[in-house]
Specification:
It contains 9 helices and 9 strands. With 210 residues, the protein is an alpha/beta fold. Helix 5 links the parallel strand 6 and strand 7. The longest helix is centred in the C-terminal third of the chain and has 19 residues. The chain is globular and about 45 Å long. The mean pLDDT is 96.
Length: 210
């Protein structure tokens, strides 16, 4: 996650649309993707998408977000998920992920939650919603806990000033959804623009890391 610096995330119920979105992200240089569990039969879409990317985009590492219980985490791991992201701190999820040594990122909103997540084995904490806390929250947390790796999600945009604020405050990486997954006025994804924006965003993050 740190090498890429950004975790693109999205959900769509139509598998063909999902394939095109992932292809655009992949063409833009991303090799890490979070598919969010936010709709009926989302696991079925993920299963087909995972098989597709394993064949067509073998370098892609695909995980699942918006997971809120151990059963759902186990289901997605069985379908091939390489990592699990949660919006909240759930100890039951930590147990099933640790048992299979699958990376999990716990949603946290306080220093106490962050400390507990780390005690449970969480290596990368998800700060959610990032727009509520802001970059200064990360800076404040890392003052007494410089070892803490934080990924803000929600409120992160590809705007250079926004990215610079997060990374200079100590963000380990960022999660980016709607601000990256551009759509037209009818709600249709703009694939070529998503590809271009992914490429430019990754390039700027790389500059910030250099």
């Amino acid at each position: 996650m740190k090498d890429q610096g950004m975790v693109p995330l999205f959900y769509h119920a139509d598998i063909e649309v999902a394939k095109k979105v992932v292809q655009a992200i992949y063409n833009g240089g991303a090799r890490l993707l979070e598919f969010t569990n936010r709709g009926d039969y989302a696991h079925q879409v993920f299963a087909e998408l995972y098989r597709y990317t394993a064949k067509e985009m073998p370098e892609l590492i695909m995980g699942v977000g918006s997971v809120t219980d151990a059963g759902t985490a186990s289901l997605y791991m069985q379908l091939g998920a390489n990592f699990i992201v949660t919006p909240v701190l759930r100890e039951d999820i930590s147990i099933v992920c640790n048992r299979r040594k699958v990376l999990w990122s716990s949603g946290c909103g306080s220093l106490t939650e962050i400390a507990r997540a780390e005690e449970l084995g969480c290596e990368i904490v998800k700060l959610f919603p990032g727009s509520v806390y802001g970059p200064n929250f990360i800076k404040s947390v890392r003052a007494p806990q410089p070892w803490t790796n934080i990924m803000p999600t929600g409120g992160v945009s590809p705007d250079p000033e926004n990215l610079k604020a997060w990374f200079t405050s100590g963000a380990y990486c960022v999660g980016m959804g709607s601000k990256l997954m551009l759509k037209d006025e009818k709600g249709n994804y703009k694939y070529s623009e998503i590809e271009t924006l992914t490429k430019s965003t990754l390039a700027y993050i790389n500059e910030l890391h250099s």
